[in-house]
Amino acid sequence: MVTSTWKRYVYPCWKPTLDNEGDNSSSRGGDPGGSVDGLWWYKDLGHHVNGEFSMAVIQANNILEDQSQLESGSMSLIEAGPQGTFVGIYDGHAGAEAARFINGRLFENVKKFTSEDQVMSADVISKAYLATEEEFLSLVRNQWQTRPQIASVGSCCLVGIICSGMLYIANAGDSRAVLGKRERALKEVKAVQLSSEHNASLESVREELRSLHPDDPNVVVLKHKVWRVKGIIQVSRSIGDAYLKRAEFNREPLLPKFRFPGTFQKPILLAEPSIFVQKLLPEDQFLIFASDGLWEHLSNQEAVDIVSSCEHHGIARKLIKAALQEAAKKREMRYADLKRIDRGVRRHFHDDITVIVLFLDSHLISRSSFRAPVVSIKGGGGGP
């Protein structure tokens, strides 16, 4: 049965444009590296080793805190190494420094450890996360005297890697990866969430925190009807957030809102990701990677319905537009009015939102030795 909700999202797929949003042909940035139009950055369609992709970002904060990248080609430093596609969504908080740092280092660390092990694996990805974490904490320590607030900056980190017919999903934080899987018997595309989320709003996450810190009754606190780690932050895993990883940064001159009484012996937040691995099958149609700003307004199935019912070109922007329409509706305003609100003030209506959609071509995925042109693209255009 076609629901009214489904029709509301899918109907725009037959319109020729996105109300001219982001369709400015003179946008700076150019097509090869994406285009910028106002608060939008987008790459409507491109090709990766395993199919096509679409990327888009909408800014809400004064400074864009979301960073992202898509890398396709060699997954190691060795020319004869495995080929594949790497996707990263980095949702920063308290600033953009951590997300930008990850955008420059994490994939390089993945290639380094893949070269050492001579194969892609969950262990390679975990080591790359932890190495990137240590590099950023070293940066914080070096800048502590001149820029102490960098100790409060962190980022969620969602990664997807397709390599040798296998799919690896790694997550630290509350971004999300969703698979669109064709159910032949039902003739529909089903949403399958692949990432584990680390947010204190989930009872399982609160239990994990309490078990890891049995001597700290305040490791998770209900504050203004929201569960927060140490009463400050919602995510329980991240890269950065040095003040919750090293006791030496839980003091002045860090701002009081990031400091808490007492000390701690082991990191309160973890940088180690949850990792999911599976073999890709012909019925696996596409993957949606997005920061939590999208999932605040769209369910997994709603997002999959939109992607499965629309053409590939511009689909990442269509997903974000659907989320923005819902955000406007929740505030009892028109989407046209929301579009006129500038960054900064925009954050009261929705978060920065980043979306990458990877379409999966089973014929290309099965050709593990296939060498396509290298693709390297970073979302956001370096933002203000």
Automatic annotation (TrEMBL):
It comes from the Eukaryota. Keywords: Hydrolase, Magnesium, Manganese, Membrane, Metal-binding, Protein phosphatase, Transmembrane, Transmembrane helix. Residues 52-360 form the PPM-type phosphatase domain. Coiled coil: none annotated. GO terms for cellular component: membrane. Its cofactor is Mn(2+); Mg(2+). GO terms for molecular function: metal ion binding; protein serine/threonine phosphatase activity. It is an enzyme of class 3 (hydrolase). GO terms for biological process: regulation of intracellular signal transduction. The chain crosses the membrane at residues 150-170. It holds the Pfam family PP2C. InterPro entries: PP2C (IPR015655), PP2C_BS (IPR000222), PPM-type-like_dom_sf (IPR036457), PPM-type_phosphatase-like_dom (IPR001932). It catalyses: O-phospho-L-seryl-[protein] + H2O = L-seryl-[protein] + phosphate; O-phospho-L-threonyl-[protein] + H2O = L-threonyl-[protein] + phosphate. Its EC number is 3.1.3.16. Belongs to the PP2C family. This is protein-serine/threonine phosphatase. The lineage of its organism: Eukaryota, Viridiplantae, Streptophyta, Embryophyta, Tracheophyta. The gene is LOC102589530.
